[in-house]
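[agent] plan:
  1. take the single chain provided in the ticket
  2. run structure prediction with default settings
  3. attach structure tokens to the ticket
  4. add a short note for the reviewer (M.T.)
[agent] executing step 1
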Amino acid sequence: MTAIAKREGERSNVVVAAGGDGTVNGVASALAGTETVLGVLPIGTLNHFARDMKLPDELDKAVATVVAGNDVRVDAAEVNGRLFINNSSIGVYPNAVEIREQLRRSGRGKWLAMATAMWRVLRTYRGVHVTLDMNGTRISARTPFVFVGNDEYVVEGLQIGARERLNGGQLFVYLAPRIPTRKLPWLLLRALAGRAMKAHDFEIVPTTELTIDTTSQRRVSVSLDGETTTLRMPLHYQARPGALRVIS
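[agent] step 2 finished; step 3 output follows
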């Protein structure tokens, strides 16, 4: 995907990604840092990037938006040289995705497999002990997850999981060192009710770069825009402000 997008980007000033966040990630990885413009037709399952860009859901309107060709600069980010446009994480989510894929290979449907995988992880996962270096400060903690957002995510209320802007030029690091994994569903309920911040469940740190390391793992499963890969520790995260031109 990335190689094809790179080749097309050399031939044209616009490359269109038709699919979900994984497809958009592949194309964006080839175009970031260039003047080639990214167009998005959100025909995937969740389309988080398109939603945060406030692109239309209907295909005909999305095509019309691409044809109009009005573009803006938005941020990207990377970890160990791998680009992401939404977020990256270690801990609960990538572990659940690995179990989900095992279940899918045995014949389970995607959503049932994910629900089963998450249930298993919430019962048994003890979290990950991490050391985070950012803003000249070191944080050591055991946490169910470390979530790194490309710009700031809404963490409370009905808009939870959305971003209000994609050009803030920062990473936002989220972790929950005081919450055991089994209590994450309760954390989600408090967040939906708008009470997570009041309960001091989250640590939220804005930064432009950070390093994550562990004492127990040399390689770790990392999610990038919903897909997982294995990367060698330490993980070096870097904001890339304005790295993408995207039709809006």
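[agent] step 4 note for reviewer: The first helix runs from residue 2 to 11.
[agent] ticket updated
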